[in-house]
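Thread: Modeling a multi-component assembly for a lab meeting

Hi all, long-time lurker, first post. My supervisor asked me to bring a structural picture of a complex we are working on to next week's group meeting, and I have zero experience with this. I have the sequence lines for every component (1420 residues in total). Could someone generate the structure of the whole assembly? Inputs are pasted exactly as I received them:
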Amino acid sequence: MTTPPATADDEVLRPGWGYASVTDKIAGLVLTRPVRWPWLAAFLGTLAGTIVYLGAMTYLFIKGVGIWGINIPVGWGFAIANFVWWVGIGHAGTFISAVLLLLRQKWRTSINRFAEAMTLFAAGMAGLFPILHLGRPWFAYWLAPYPDHMNLWPQWRSPLVWDVFAISTYLLVSALFWYLGMLPDLATLRDRAKTRGKQVTYGLLALGWRGESRHWARHETAYLLLAGLATPLVISVHSVVAMDFAIGNTPGFHSTIFPPYFVAGALFSGFAMVLTIAIPLRRVFDLKDFITEVHLDHAAKVLLATGSLVAYGYLVENFMAFFSGDRFEIAMTVDRWTGAYAPVYWLMMACNVLLPQVLWFRAARRNTVLLFALSIFINIGMWTERFTIVVQSTHHDFMPSAWGLFIPTRWDWIFLFGSISMFAWLFLAFIRLLPTISISEMRELVKEEHDERRPAARRRSPRSAEQGGPSGIA
Amino acid sequence: MPHPHPHHDDDANEHVIRVDRGAGVTRRQALAAMAASMALANTACSPPPKLQAHPYVNLPEARGGGLPLYYATAFVRDGFAMGVLVGTQEGRPIKIEGNAAHPSSLGATDVYAQASVLQLWDPDRSAVVKQRLARNAEARTSPQAAASTWSEFETAWRARAATRAQAPADATLRVLTGPLTSPTERALLAALLAREPDARWHVHAPLRDAAAVEGTQLAFGQVVTPLFHFDQARCVLALAADPFSDGPGAVHHAMDWSSARSSARDAADARPATLFAAEATPGLFGARADRRVALSPARIESLLWRIATQWMPDIDAPPADPALADFESRVVGALREAGGSALVIGGPGLSAEAHALVFQLNARLGAVGRTLTLIAPPDDASDAGTLAALVDDLNAGKVDTLLVLGANPAYDAPASFDMPHALSRAKLLVHAGLHVDETAALADWHLPLSHAYEQWSDALAHDGSASLLQPAISPLYDTRSAAELLALLADDTVRDGHSLVQRQWRTPHRDDFDAFWRRSLRDGVVADSAAPALTLHVHRARSRPSSLPGLVALFVPDAAAHDGAYANNGWLQELPRPFTKMTWDNAALLSPATAKRLGLETGDIAQVQVDARSIEAPVWVLAQQADDVVTLPVGCGRRRAGRVGNGVGFDAYALRPAGATTSAVTLRTTGRTHAFAVTQHEIDQHGRELLRTVAAGSALPKQETHAQLYPSFASPVHAWAMVIDLDACIGCNACTIACQAENNIPVVGKEQVAKGRDMHWIRIDRHDLDEIDNSAFQPVPCMHCEEAPCEVVCPVGATVHDSEGLNLQVYNRCVGTRFCSNNCPYKVRRFNFLQFSDETTETLKAQRNPDVTVRQRGVMEKCTYCVQRIARARQASERDGRPLVDGDVVTACQSACPTRAIRFGDKNDSKSDVVQARASQRHYAMLDELDTKPRTTYLARVKPTA
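Re: Modeling a multi-component assembly
Sure thing. I ran the full set together rather than chain by chain. Output:
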């Protein structure tokens, strides 16, 4: 009988954690931790916001999209800006789970679960907007290819049709990936649950997981395969969203750099949102040992890298406008700098290019308060980028006689903040209902970390080494 | 008289009565009671229609399939007729077309004629006779009135006649009308006045420029109406005048000018007429002029005197104005060169002496009899009193009964007349009109009049030609025509409009009346009825009158509401005013320099004061406006126009002095601002060459085409195309409103326009161009691109090409992503952001064109090249077994255009008009660098040569 491993400080996991204590800690957040007022207040507050959001949707369906500030020439307003923004946020989760898994980055372990949840909820918020923004949303299904007696199909040259596939595939794969990764943890919750209701619920969700070796073998294979499948989607989904604009001929839309630039921007905003969530999460639920400064530091480095790519995108966009000599592009670019929406553009530049430069300094990367503030600014900055592309480009295109301003109405703001509210509400529910951090992968980390210090034991599976409870499930 | 409701239930009655026999009622008694109650019930019902309407027993083949049926009649505005064809579908008038045979139309229309069909279907039209409940002072101020009937009114009128016959009083009967040209109505009016010896007729024309009328009196010794012949003119000088929009002959002028210009433009030896304009406020003529200056009325008069002195050295010319030396010398040179082919026109704001001098100058140039002819005024009111005289008599208690017929003095009289008080002095005030308007609210009786398209009548054109008005639909409500009302009042033996008009015209055409009647009805104009030209001696000029110093207010009709009569017309209210592009408003126009001096900016609310009266009006600063002139459009600020027109804009009549179009004025800032709803925010085209100009006789550079990734659309049979001649367009908006009527385009209201959601399928862009030193207009409908950017991005294929090259919008398929609009470089697509089409108001539903889908909210729409007209022409050609020929398809915008600037046809037909136009060296495609290959293309505006 060997002693169960306990961790030393290896930066992505603080010292003193063993299999059981990790399980206790994470499962405890769901099963034993009492409801406290900060969470309850946040939950009820965002629930109220969600109800307002649903009410606003009802009103929208009754009245039409004219309740927003959109017009001719600005046919798309907040709805599409919100859509692109949420899709971008939905990028980080899959990137962390799939790409970093394939790249064997240990530090992904403690943040992948909630990042995936974030992805799922963000993609869900994103998926709503293209339907909400339709003039006749009850015919949204016409964008899907289905056989009908009139032999009508979608118009395949339209990037909006590609969008349908890109978003729905992404949502599906993200959900599968998240759920598949959670199966062992659901089984753990089932086994640890004290009440019948929870046992049955988690039991059903666990799909009969018993922790058999065959289960583990297949789970690992499936997880890796899905990671492989999800990886190209990280690139494709936002490339397709970028093509919604790039295919258009409007100056400010029509740009070949958009697909890679949008992917970089998506990761940028996604990681910003990960930080926005992780920093309060680790503080409120005392997860600082699992989500360490190193995690934050790594995420900040990703921010710096993707932020630089985004800055490069801005630079190229501006350069190409003048290099092309196209008078419409030049006029649009000058209008970005000096026109009606110039404050939004410069806010974007400040948030996305200027402020992230502090991340060159290690001290800044390890300062949680600063990082949290920066992540909020980047979230705002990325939203203003979407707004600039969607609104500023169309308000000032080819015909000066048709130029016009988009002025958001209160409904525009309600839909933006309503979606944020609903996202937060879903996330708050997720924290208390499902394991926020992957228990099984954390235990694997404990094992790996233990083995690293004791090379002789490296071959042995951490699950079979477990002594304190049902093997691999506890 | 046959019983209208024959009953066949005698047996049943018998059965019922038998049961009651025990109660002592015999069967016969019961039947008698039954018959009596039936008869009583019938008398209580409304009477049967006055005229019989006969349905088809056998539907003629030609009338099958919902084809439109056109009635030649006339649209009457300010008393003058514009011959139109009222297009009806299933018996409902839905679209007005011009009548090529009519001198005021020449096949085209103005915006008012186009909008008149909406006036017919206006849900706020008065439908019932109304009588005030109490006859006392308090009741006068309260708008409470009770529904009554024509028979009650007739009874009351007869009672009045009886009392008056017994006891003749000092007070008399007065009739107040608007300008009246109808021979029938004038004859009936004369008959009515003849019944009461001291009865009198007064005419109130709120827009009539008294100085212009007096000017003809000064020049010729009698009041005459000048007619302008732009087709004969080689040089036209307009002084404060806008002959392309003012007056009943405006369409005629534009058409004459355009046809002369188009034939001269392409001829080697001829040169188009040069146009000069000196105007106080921008007008359509000024925008078309080769040289234009903006001057206050006083400076225009100085200019006139200086120019006139060249031909009349004995008049006292003011000192030269250095700023105008160039303009003056050009004008003098051009007038001298043109000689008898010159034409000088004076307009509102000038003094009577100036108008007289204009006629003298024309006479000296030799223009009178060539470019300018004189006729007796078709709306001659020399035997009628003025409104001022009526007000005096009212206040003096000399008026027993006042009949107001088709006028609204309570709204549009000068404020100094204090009309509400004056009207209250009449013992009996009877108002007859289309609406329960401001005057009706003060009247003892309000009588609903029939709309011009519901009645038999007649009216004269601007040149005196007579037209017969025939109904295109039987009256929607229990209304009577003015002629029928006058016949009722005069107790005529003939009461129905048809017989009244026939009686009027039977006298001069006794021999072949039936043929005359049919021919005149069919043609829409009485043959050879134009007024004969008068040959008159011109009197010598008088001295120059002193003019108003300082800031001058110029009262002009509003471009939409006109004198206020059209204020309740949503199409007109939402029509962007030609220069400001504002909708649902009027504004005090100021020049930039004057505005700066007064410390005012566009959108500021200013307190405008004339004498002791002041109103608050929003200011609009317009570069084309003359310094020291405040243009105040009248016709807005209606209080009882209806649900559309109430409270739109400010009421400038409240400031207008009696009998003048100008007055001294002061403006003060209030510190508050007003939000306008504007459709075009950017007037500068930023050097983008969207609206191109070309020097006379030279060619535009050739436009290159580029390689395409996608295969081109083929249009093997027909390839529809439109060419818009920017050199002909005067920016009158007739196309926009014709399109609105034809294509069921909804009115969205001021708030939605302000948000950028106006729905017009063809908009008129105005650009100020340095190269012509003037404004130019560019109608922009859908370009129907062969490589349409909208089609590529629609996810559901709701916008597609057809085999004839039309870019179609399939409303049923549209889900409303709006990507097509974002991707349209011309921004001609329009989206139903909300439920814009009125789905509830019954009369508005009846106006809709059944061949055009009424769009639901959430769908995109845009110009279709009037696909329904193309389909109709194709069906007709297939039915007749002949090919479609050029001219078979006429779009609504093309048909309405008073300068024939819009041409439409088949690009595959080498002889078609559009192919000729596309071969012009002025031809270009807008934004051709995008390679959209638009089917709608333009002919560049020719730069001025003078």
